[in-house]
Amino acid sequence: MDEPAYESRLKTGFVPRPCFVVTMTTPFAPRWKYSVGAQYEVFLGRYGSLTPRLDLSHQSYFYGQAVNAIYNRVNAYTLLNGHLTWRAADDAWQVALEAKNITDRLYYYGLFDNRSSSQTVLGEPAPPREWAVTVRRSF
Q1: Residues 6 or more apart whose Cβ sits within 8 Å of residue 68
Q2: What distances in angstroms separate CA 139 from CA 49, 90, 94, 95, 136, one per listed residue?
Q3: pLDDT digits over 52-70, tens only?
């Protein structure tokens, strides 16, 4: 009768060693993640209204793989985004200026430690500062 493979290995002295340690953290699970935003509409009478808005978000560090290592640790980051919106008094027109990552912070969405096969560490950087202008007309 054939023995299961794991029993054969145990008889030959093979001792499996786990590479995951209990003190390691779950990948892609930052301890803290929060955001806060504020906006205020300023009425300009017959000229409509102006609404500034700021959004702040923060994420603490996390690891990109189950085996935690310095090469797959994604650093914490804080981002600031903003909007400035003008609306006509009759709500027919709206013009908005938007900026993301206002401080032009370099941060990564994730890191992958691939040193065991290709001797590389791969990272996915987030976009740099971006801005947009939106014009809207309602009928």
Answers
A1: 24, 25, 27
A2: 19, 11, 12, 15, 10
A3: 999 999 999 999 988 888 9
